[in-house]
C-alpha cells in the first residue's frame, strides 16, 4: 500500500515536530521554508508493507487579497488530489478562528480526513476526551486521534489510521 497525505494546520500546532517524530531523524525533513510550488514532498515514511508520502500544502489561511485568494484556491485543488488530509490542531479547548477557517475550507472536500489533536501531554485525560467530543460534533473526520508529537504517544496509532484509509 502507498498513498499521499497532506498535513495542514495553523503555525505552531506541531506539524514539523510530528514529521520529525514519524521519520525519526530530523535530517529527513526536506525543507520547512514557504514553498511556491504545490504539493511539495516533505518526507516519505516507509513501513513494513506500506509507504506514506507526506506532502506540504501551504496557503490554507484566510486570504487578505486577490493573490491570497488565488493561493488558497490552488491549495484547495491540491487537497482533492491526495488520499488523506491530516489536520493538526493543538491542545486548546476551544477552536480558534484559524482552525475554524481551515475546517470550513476542507469540510466539503471528498478526500478522507483525519484530525490529530496534538500536545496532549499538556492535558488531563478528561480534557482530551472533551476536545475529541467537540470535534466529533462537526462530523467531518474519518478518525480523530489524540497525540503528543513531542513524546510520541498516539503517533503509531495515527500511522495505522492513515494506512487504513490508503
Ligand atoms: P509547526 O509550526 O506546526 O511546524 O509547529 P512546530 O513543530 O514547529 O512546533 C511548535 C512548537 O510546539 C515547538 O515549540 C514544539 O516544541 C512544540 N510542540 C510540538 N509538538 C508538541 C507536543 O506534542 N507537546 C508539546 N508540549 N509541545 C509540542
Ligand atoms: Mg513547521
Q: Can you walk me through this structure?
A:
- Mean pLDDT is 85; it is low at 26-31.
- The chain is of the alpha/beta class and 166 residues long.
- The longest helix has 14 residues, at 66-79.
- It has five helices and six strands; from the N terminus they run βαββαβαβαβα.
- The protein has a single domain, classed as 3-Layer(aba) Sandwich (Rossmann fold), CATH 3.40.50.
- Strands 2-3-1-4-5-6 form a six-stranded mixed sheet, sandwiched between helices.
- β5 (112-117), α4 and β6 (143-146) form a beta-alpha-beta unit.
- Bound molecules: guanosine-5'-diphosphate (GDP) and magnesium ion.
- Residues 9, 11-17, 118-119, 121-122, 148-150 line the site of guanosine-5'-diphosphate.
- This is GTPase Era.
- Belongs to the TRAFAC class TrmE-Era-EngA-EngB-Septin-like GTPase superfamily. Era GTPase family.
- Residues 147-149 are annotated as: G5.
- An essential GTPase that binds both GDP and GTP, with rapid nucleotide exchange. Plays a role in 16S rRNA processing and 30S ribosomal subunit biogenesis and possibly also in cell cycle regulation and energy metabolism.
- Residues 118-121 are annotated as: G4.
Quick overview:
This protein has 166 residues and is of the alpha/beta class.
Amino acid at each position: 500500500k502507498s498513498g499521499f497525505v497532506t498535513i495542514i494546520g495553523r503555525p505552531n500546532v506541531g506539524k514539523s515536530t510530528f514529521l520529525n517524530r514519524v521519520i525519526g531523524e530530523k535530517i529527513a525533513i526536506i525543507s520547512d521554508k514557504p514553498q511556491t510550488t504545490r504539493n511539495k514532498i516533505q518526507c516519505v515514511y516507509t513501513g513494513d508493507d506500506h509507504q506514506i508520502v507526506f506532502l506540504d500544502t501551504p496557503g490554507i489561511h484566510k486570504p487578505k487579497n486577490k493573490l491570497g485568494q488565488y493561493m488558497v484556491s490552488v491549495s484547495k485543488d491540491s487537497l482533492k488530489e491526495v488520499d488523506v488530509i491530516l489536520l493538526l490542531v493543538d491542545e486548546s479547548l476551544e477552536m480558534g478562528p484559524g482552525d475554524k477557517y481551515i475546517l470550513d475550507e476542507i469540510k466539503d472536500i471528498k478526500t478522507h480526513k483525519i484530525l490529530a489533536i496534538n500536545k496532549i501531554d499538556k492535558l488531563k485525560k478528561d480534557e482530551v476526551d472533551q476536545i475529541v467530543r467537540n470535534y466529533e460534533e462537526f462530523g467531518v473526520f474519518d478518525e480523530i486521534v489524540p497525540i503528543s508529537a513531542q513524546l510520541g504517544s498516539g503517533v503509531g496509532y495515527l500511522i495505522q489510521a492513515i494506512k487504513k484509509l490508503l
